[in-house]
Structures are given as C-alpha cells and as structure tokens.
Amino acid sequence: IILSATAVVVFLYWYLTSPYSYWEKRGIPFVNPFPIFGNVIDYIFLRNTSTESYMKIYKTLEGHQFGGFYSGSTPNLILRDPVIIKQIVVKDFNHFLDRNPSFVEKITPLARNLASLTGSRWRKLRVKLTPSFTSGKMRMMLPTIIGCSQELVSFLGESADDSNNIEIRNVASNFTTDVIGSCGFGLEINSMKSPDSEFCRMGNKVFQPTFLTGALRSLGLIYRPILKLVRHPIASKDVNDLFLGIVKETMSYRQKNKVVRNDFLKLLIQLKNKGKVDEDLMSNMTDTLLAAQCFVFFLAGFETSSTTISCCLHELAVNPDIQERLRKEVDNVLIKHGGQITYEALQDLKYMDAVVDVGSLARFCTKDYKIPGTNINIDKETSVIIPVYAIHHDPRYYPEPEKFDPEWFSDENIKIRPMFTYLPFGEGPRIC
C-alpha cells in the first residue's frame, strides 16, 4: 500500500511539474516556478491578489519585452512592451479574439453577455450592441444619473448634520447601485435609504465568493482542465433568477403599457424589436440574452465604479491642494454653464478627468501567433497577460508611481508618454 501510494504521489508530481520546461524549450525568459503551484502560490492561498502576483512577475522580468510564468502547471505569457501590447490587442486582434473562457452558458444564462461570449458569437452581438453606446445614447441617461446624484448629496448633507462618521465605501456602493439599477434595469432602488433591498443584497452576493468558488478558482489555477470539468455558474441560482426576472418583467410591462424611459433597457428593447443577432444565439432566448447584457452592465459598473469613487475621495481628503484645485474647476465650469450640470459641462472638467484617471487584462490566443520582430511563437490556447496595474506603476511611464499626481494626465505628459501605457479599460475591439 505504501509503495502504491508513493508511486501515485510521484506520478502526480511528475504530471504537474513536467510542463515547467515549456518556456525554457522555446528560449523565452521566464520566472522560475514553485513545484505544483507555479508562480501564483501566494494568490492560490489568498496571501495576495492576482494584481500583486502579476506585479511581482513583471518586476522580475525587468529588461525583457515579455516573459513566461506558470499558473499552477499552465504556461502563461506576460507582456511588458507597449509596442507588442498594441500589436496584440489591435493590429493582430484576430489571433487574440477571446478572453479566458470561464463560464458554462448552458447552466449560466447570464454568461451570454458581451464580455463573456467568444468567437463569432461575440462579433455578431458586438455589431448589434455597439450603436447603443454612442455619445448621443449615453447623453440621454444623464438626467437619470443626476437624479441619483441629488439623492447622494441629500444623504451626505443629512449625515453631516448628524455629525456621524460615514463609511464612504458603502455610500459609493449604494450610489453606483442606484445609478445602475435606474439606468440598467429601470428601477428606483434608493439604496441610500434602503440599503437592505433585495436588489442590493443580491448585487452584493455576486461579489462575495463562496468557499466552493474559491476552491474551484485555486484548483483551476493549479490545473486548468478542472474548470472545464466542473460546471460552475457565473452567479448563484437566486441571483440568476432575480436579474432574469427583473428584466423580463420590466420589458413586458413597458411593452404592454407603452412606457418609454431613457435608459439602457430602452436601448435593448429597441434591439430586440429589430430582430435576431443570429439563429444559434437568439433562438427562443431573446429576453434571456438581453437580461445577460443588463447583468454585465451591473458587473462592469458596480464594484469598479464604487471602488474608484471611494479611492478618489480618500486621495482628495489627504491631498487638500488637489482638492482645492478641483473644487475651483467645478465652480468655474458651473458658472460657465449657468449652474447646470450638463453633458457639455462634464466635457469641460479636464482636471476632474485627470483626478479620476489616477485610479488586469487577459487575452486568450485563439490561433498560433508569431511575435513580430522575433522568432517566438505563441501556441494556440496560451493565456497572454497584460499586467495593467504593473504598467500603471512602472516609473518609466509614471514617475513616483505611488504618488497621487493628476499631472500625469496633463496634455503635455500624455503626449510624451508611449501609447498603450494607460489601459484602464483595455484597448482594441474588446475594450470595456
């Protein structure tokens, strides 16, 4: 028995570590991996984030345009050169069409969203959805956002009168929930007064991983095929049911009662009425597909926006000189526009843009690819990592990267900084 157990352990060790010669055989610089766990052992055991892991790998490969590392036993390529990044995400995009496939559509209807779809299905849906995001279409939602902002100002005023401490992260989360609920789902959530509503509760649940989710993530990092074997949904059944139900009921009510509201759902209803994207994608699933787009609207806007808002407010609090300059800009712009917050007024807030801009991207190789100017080939199904946080903290592009400095985004500094060194939303056709 002991001999058999030893043999099994030895075999598993060999099976999981044999891929570690992958980058060396190809003559590509790489970071030496830890057996079984590769270069992400701290991330697997929740000792740091994926961002911090990529930052460490990025620094280790200093002096190279790119390099290899391992997620468990799976080889990944990380990019350090903005010229190569541009080549991959824009010029040679057809080789890197997909993001890492993570969800199973058959058991996860909400995974049929633009961010998760792959290949031709993503292309066809993108063609249909892109016209919904013109500046004119976004402009029509501004009054709705201003209404949510007025609720926020009222809440902060009342809280200040009470002389109580305010947890700004929660306030920012409630505000983004109100904006997304109103613009994306046609709902008046009013999270400032009702933070325990079902929409808020289910929304927060999306971003609270369960033990099973964490275990699958860690096992999937060690051995990627596990993610293909285990069908785990993008969200729990109750979350799926809530979002699907809200969208279907709201769409049905509006169509029966001829209700028109300037929000994202209106644009999706217009898309639905124009016809199918293609037979395979839309057949008998029209409402579900559109609900999935509302869901990704929530995913993309809730946590990211609330985190950005709370971090910006913190930095403004500890940098009063920047706060004062920003306040003067806001006052001057409001005077110019007659005290009204209009779409044009927002375009004039240049310093505000710079403040917000101071706040990881992955591609999946769908076809074999040769890196231009080299003899290096990237095999199909290799994950290519663009370490956005590491690039944004590279002193070559951002002097004193830990300092909060809106001047990085002055017109002068933007002109002299290499392209593709600021990628908050990615770039190319799959830009967020």
TrEMBL record:
Heme binds at residue 432. It is a peripheral membrane protein. GO terms for cellular component: endoplasmic reticulum membrane. SUPFAM superfamilies: Cytochrome P450. Its cofactor is heme. GO terms for molecular function: heme binding; iron ion binding; monooxygenase activity; oxidoreductase activity, acting on paired donors, with incorporation or reduction of molecular oxygen. It comes from the Eukaryota. It is found in: Endoplasmic reticulum membrane; Microsome membrane. Keywords: Endoplasmic reticulum, Heme, Iron, Membrane, Metal-binding, Microsome, Monooxygenase, Oxidoreductase. Belongs to the cytochrome P450 family. This is Cytochrome P450. It comes from Timema douglasi.
